[in-house]
Amino acid sequence: MAASASPAASPPRRRHSHRDDDSPCRRKRRVSPSPPRSPSPGADADRRRRSRDSPPDPDRRRDAKPSEEKENGHAKPGKDEGGEDDRPPRRARVSDGEEDGDRRRRRSRVSDDEKEDGRRRRRARDSDEERDDRRGKRDRERDSRRHRRRSPSSESGSSPDDRRRRRHRRDEGTRRRDDRRRRDDDRGERRRSPENREPTPLPPPPPLLPEMIPGRTGGIYIPPFRMAQMMRDVEDKSSPEYQRLTWDALKKSINGLVNKVNATNIKNIVPELFAENLVRGRGLFCQSCIKSQMASPGFTDVFAALVAVVNTKFPEIGRLLLVRVVLQLKRAYKRNDKPQLLAATKFIAHLVNQVVAHELVALELLTVLLENPTDDSVEVAVGFVKECGAMLQDLSPQGLHAIFERFRGILHEGEIDKRVQFLIEGLFAIRKAKFQGFPAIRPELDLVEQDDQFTHEISLEDDLDPETNLNVFRANQNFVEDEKAYENLKRSILGAESSEDEEGSDAASDEEDEESDEEDDEEQMEIKDRTETNLVNLRRTIYLTIMSSVDFEEAGHKLMKIKLEPGQEMELCIMLLECCSQERTYLRYYGLLGQRFCMINKVHQENFEKCFVQQYSMIHRLETNKLRNVAKFFAHLLGTDALPWHVLAYIRLTEEDTTSSSRIFIKILFQELSEHLGIRLLNERLNDPNMQGSFESIFPKDHPKNTRFSINFFTSIGLGGITESLREHLKNMPRLIMQQQKPESSESESSGSESGSEGSSSGSSSESESSSDESDRRRSKKRRKRT
Predict the structure, then answer these.
(1) Which residue has the higher pLDDT, 346 or 698?
(2) Which of 330, 458, 648, 718 is the most buried (most CB within 10 A)?
(3) pLDDT digits over 635-651, tens only?
């Protein structure tokens, strides 16, 4: 039966949804829950405002539900046909006043809870702001999920309770942001206010002496002025702490000097470098040079020049650096480290150029690189030959020729890359041009004479010790004695100037007067340069000017600007003749330049005449190529009348007075003159009666033998036309001899008549004796024939 049905058997009660709350019946029932009354308009408005602000009332919804169902006319389970409800009766509906009171109490209770919850959250936010951020993120994610769960019908119309909740959340988020902004502003105020700012503590002063901290850093940083003060205050100069201070100062000084050296200031850096204790810091010096060269390979020749200067005074430092560079090269070769290998080979090449390393080191290195050729090894070898090929050409031409033959073989094999083949072809072109553009030593870096240099010869296969312990500080028991010994050595190297600078200038007036007198005496003294440094520099300047000029006019203009001291004009002629002889073939450039100088100044003409005599006297020392160039040079001067023809008087053309070299010189000289002047004009010059005294030695007429030798010589070189007068003289020579002999015979006859009478008796007796002797000989011969 429906009346006796239990509540469990009845269908479950539906929960209210947003759709039920927003139904028109629900809104109608909420607006007029009782028979109409006539309240005042203000009370209605107040009641509506309170209803909007109050939280949702589940009891009211529950009470209004049956009435709504009844008004809608839907039949519910548990009701009979007459509309009577058989379920237990519900509690009676409360009045509007009681409902408003309950609503007010609930609202006050909710507001108190919200305030407490807000204070709790603010405390938690002050303690940990990150927790608030995470909570806010979770709330937003929850809202977004809740929003996504809504159905489209519920999104279209929202209940007042939902609007209140959303508004409440917005207000809560705004409140949180305002609190956070206010808290950040307070914190910024406290940070900016000078009263709340805590004073920064001052750094502690450095200790009197730094502790011995092992490692590469060497301890804490100390300003230079503080370091100098500490070193002055130390009383025990042999203590390990003081030695450590001097070691750090030495390391910084050597690194600074090596890093700032270049081709311009190297002459100023060298004295400063010798002022440091290089014996103690030889490991530091080598390490700094290698690191600086690795960092900037373009300055390799500068570092090599610096090492060359140091090697003249301390050969062990030069050997140590060479050993370390060779070990670095071997290490890079095993690791296939091409950049480090290129840097090491370039350093060795310039050490060979400075004659610090022997040329055998370079040849051995090239042999190793080209033994099993690869693209990289051949490229490294080509770069190495470019750097030191000019020096190897002078020191070991046969070894360099063998290396180029190996290059030619690699090129013919064709197993390497095309790019590397082009590099080898370019290297052959550079060799053909005598390594122009790749000088062994730049003039500004040529600081050491080869006689003063120490050359080290090591092998790549030797077991070498890099002596890395020299890079690390070690206490020395004889520190003070070693420092004094180096001071004495430094004075001997640099002179007494360094010691005088250190002592200061605290002297009395008498001492100053004495010093002024000494300076006057020194000014009056004449200083003579016995090292010929100025002469060498002059020759270098002349050579560079001649070789760098485009034509002879530019060269002459530049050479005339050089200020020559009296007596140095001869050096200009000698250098011009030397440059001409060094050329592979004769260049008319030198003849025109010599002609220009002879025409400008008679002094140069006289100097070239002296050079002619000197060269002819030492002609047997010259090679054939040099001899040909010198002969053509003087032939040009004679053919252009820049040199007087009486210089030929120094040549005596006889078999006894000439050698094979001198005969070649005369041959080339007269052949060039015939080309310049022609055989007819040359013959006229040689037959000039005013110059016959100068040509008697070339065309001798004193003896037929010498005359025949001169005629045969000029005929053999194709210049028989200039010997016509000499041939006529040779034809007329017997008649001349007879004419000379006639007066001699007449003189002899007159003297014979005077002595004839005296010796007539003796003559007759001797004739009789001789006739008797001849008769006896004939008789004896006849007897022998008969027998």
Answers:
(1) 346
(2) 648
(3) 999 999 898 888 888 88
Q: Which domains does the chain have, with CATH numbers?
A: 237-471 (1.25.40.180), 542-737 (1.25.40)
Q: What does the DSSP 8-state code read for residue 95?
A: P
Handedness of CA 731, 736, 738, 741 (dihedral sign): negative
**DSSP annotation string for 196-215:** TPPPPPPPPPPPSS-----S
Which residues 6+ apart lie within 8 Å of 718 measured at CB? 671
Written as one letter, the residue type at 656 is: E
User: What is the secondary structure of 550-568 as a DSSP string?
Assistant: SSHHHHHHHHHHS-PPTT-
User: Is the pLDDT assigned to residue 22 strictly greater than 70?
Assistant: no
Number of neighbouring beta carbons within 10 Å of residue 441: 19
Q: Tell me the two tokens of residue 378.
A: 């051949």
454 and 318 in contact (C-beta within 8 Å)? yes
Residue 2 CA to residue 13 CA, distance in Å, equals 17
Dihedral sign for Cα atoms in the order 426, 431, 434, 437: positive
The three-point CA angle 77-78-80 to 5° equals 100
Report the Cα 104 to chain-centroid distance in Å: 91
Distance in angstroms (rounded) separating the CA atoms of residues 537 and 529: 13
Q: Each residue of 249-275: pLDDT tens digit?
A: 899 999 999 999 999 999 999 999 999
Residues 6+ apart with CB under 8 A from 119: none
**Where would I find the beta strands (DSSP E) of 461-613?**
none
Residue range 97-120: mean pLDDT, rounded: 69
Strand partners, 85: 79
Q: Enter the DSSP assignment of 357.
A: B
Let me know if 57 is exposed, middle or buried by CB neighbors in 10 A (0-12, 13-18, 19+): middle
Q: And the tokens for 537?
A: 């520099």
CA-CA distance, 631 to 612, in Å (whole number)? 9
pLDDT, tens digit, 9 for 90 and up, residues 220-243:
677 877 777 777 777 677 888 888
